[in-house]
Amino acid sequence: MTSYTGAVDVRPATLADRPTVERLWLMFRHDLSEFRNGGVSQLPNPDGTFRSERVAAAFRDSGEPGDLRVSGDWAPYLFLSGVHPVGFAFVRGIGGPTRILNSFFVVRGARRGGVGMRAVRDVVSRCPGDWEVAFQDVNPGAVAFWRRVGEELAPGEWGEERRPVPGRVGLPPDVWISFRYGGAVER
């Protein structure tokens, strides 16, 4: 099997992109549903959707057609290969001292060829400084990917810790990767 190695264009998502991101969100949540976090199944809602409050938080309508207002310091990004959507990222804490890569997804057909690393590097370069990302130990692909991100973006200077999931007693702690990034990506 050959890995996809095509180019990836990362850009801020607009309100017009929201339906595309919502469909990508379903794929993201479907991928995560295989991991039983604390023994809790991640099944879809009765209508076939998954919880989507992060999509709602990332997209806030300012009232003007096509205008996206960063609300609560969230920013959505869309990853494209030509005209094809290949992923997304939601960042929160844009105005704070530490940005959090809250959700990050690359479609299966574009994985394992460097698309994710190029996309994450592009996203974090837009707001140089301190970054954090959380994932779960039960997801081995995420564990390997985010540790590789830490080492590539902040060689030898990134950290990892486990933190309780707020308001979710009984769930295993999340793993948090922290790093400082000051590089810029040419666009």
In the predicted model, the low-confidence regions spanning at least 5 consecutive residues are: 61-67
Rounded radius of gyration (Å): 16 Å
Q: State the major sheet.
A: 7 strands, mixed
Q: So, CATH architecture?
A: 3-Layer(aba) Sandwich
| Run of helices and strands | EHHEEEHEHEE
Q: What is the straight-line distance between the termini?
A: 31 Å
Could you say what the CATH topology is called? Aminopeptidase
Overall geometry = globular
Q: CATH class, anyone?
A: Alpha Beta
Task: State mean pLDDT (0 to 100 scale).
Answer: 80
Beta percentage is: 25-35%
Give the oligomer, counting copies of the same chain as homo and different chains as hetero.
single chain
Tally of strands: 7
**Please, how many domains?**
1
Percent of residues in helices: 10-25%
Q: Which features would summarize this protein structure in a list?
A:
7-stranded mixed beta sheet; 4 helices; 7 strands; alpha+beta; Aminopeptidase; 187 residues
Description:
By secondary structure, the chain is an alpha+beta fold. It has a single domain (9-181), classed as 3-Layer(aba) Sandwich (Aminopeptidase). Helices cover 25% and strands 27% of the residues. It has helices at 18-32, 53-58, 115-125, 140-153, and strands at 9-12, 74-81, 84-92, 98-106, 129-135, 159-163, 174-181. Strands 1-2-3-4-5-7-6 form a seven-stranded mixed sheet, sandwiched between helices. A hairpin with a 5-residue loop joins β3 (84-92) and β4 (98-106).
